[in-house]
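Exercise (ungraded).
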Amino acid sequence: MTSGPARAVTLLTLLASLALAGCSRPEPYSETMIAFGTLVDVTLYAESPAQADEALRMIESDLQYMHETWHPWKPGSLGRMNLLLPTGGWFSAGPSLLPIIEQSTTLSEQSEGLFNPAIGQLVALWGFHGEDLPAGPPPPPDEIASLVGQAPQMADLEIDGIRIRSTNAAVKLDFGAFAKGYGVDRVIERLVEMGITDAIVNAGGDLRAIGRHGDRDWRVGIRDPRGQGVLASLEVSGDESVFTSGNYERYFEWDGKRYHHIIDPRTGYPADDVLSVTVLHESGAVADAAATALFVAGREDWPRIAAGMGVEAVMVIDADGGIALTPAMAERIRFESESTPEPQIRPLP
Amino acid sequence: MKRGDWMVLVLATLFIGMSYAHFWTGPTPATEALVQTGDGHRHHLHLGRDATLHVPGPLGDTRIEVHDGRARIADSPCNDKFCVHYGWLDHGGETIACLPNRVVLQLAGADQDYDAINF
């Protein structure tokens, strides 16, 4: 094997083998499942079908467990806590609840109380606490005013070790604006522990992605809140979450008026100044809480709240269809239609 | 290098190039809608052929329609009808679900425009 052509063949065979060796990289696996009371879409790269299956089953069972544990009104850790909080006495909290309470308390303070998981009673009064949507009518104004007047807040909770109590009898916790983000964060942590480095977990439209989709970034389409189809897209990689709060997600109509599920803790009524808020942030929990807080803040105040919560990439679509972007979001987002109105750039204070 | 060497070089380069194209680039556009029901049944609908499909769920039948290369949930026995109001799906990877009736409609195809839809 010393002749020129033979050497060339050997060399090129080697090169070809090297070029194709990449084919043994991890394969993508996708599955759509119903968990966490919503549709969960997962794509991940795993070394083998067995590893992929183990990861997918883990995601399904973990999300289901969290959904049951953190349900505000069903028998479970949070359901029990909500029965005990109005007594004002000390009691032991379920171990999985303290971290979620602590992180949401911090985020609630940063949001100036606009993200407020302590208004569980208001959410229930409107009927947005169950799996089924309320049929209307809206609750009596005096009952709304009474709950708003008692001003339940996360700061009303006192924690001593694993024991907790509320100094305000109106506090009932509902993590509907937070649990999905917090839960997706936990699932991503578990995937990383399993050695999975490339995955996207989309829980009912809110997602966190790690790594990349093969040799390109993950591509995320953002639904148009005003109608059908996709408004814009984002490429995400590394470790990022994309969360949107919209008035089209859960609502009922009564006397020709739409009442949606994002309640302003200051008024007790659905916030109605914007249609949707999309937040891009590393943490799903922060993105989830911020999307809700900025939605409640409305078009004037959202930049201040975003700055307070430490989120930089935001898109807000107001009730008149106007689009506002932070500079960090403007760099990342691409609109899919040429008829999209020119977005306004809103720097954060 | 002799002429034979060059020939081997050219052929090998072509071989590598074609292998790359075969193994690494995206396949053809989405041509299929996938319908999943709560009892684990999966139905595949060709997007090139107009069709109507009724699938059963815990609340009753959900009607799926394919028309002009798009698909939608045309009717559903659920209360809020979010799935019906969503309208037509026309992007690869786009998904809509009726949670109460446990029906999922998804446009399949490996050239998906999006890996996930945020809403």
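Further reading is listed at the end of the chapter. For now, observe: The mean pLDDT of chain A is 92. Chain A touches chain B through 53 residues (CB under 8 Å).
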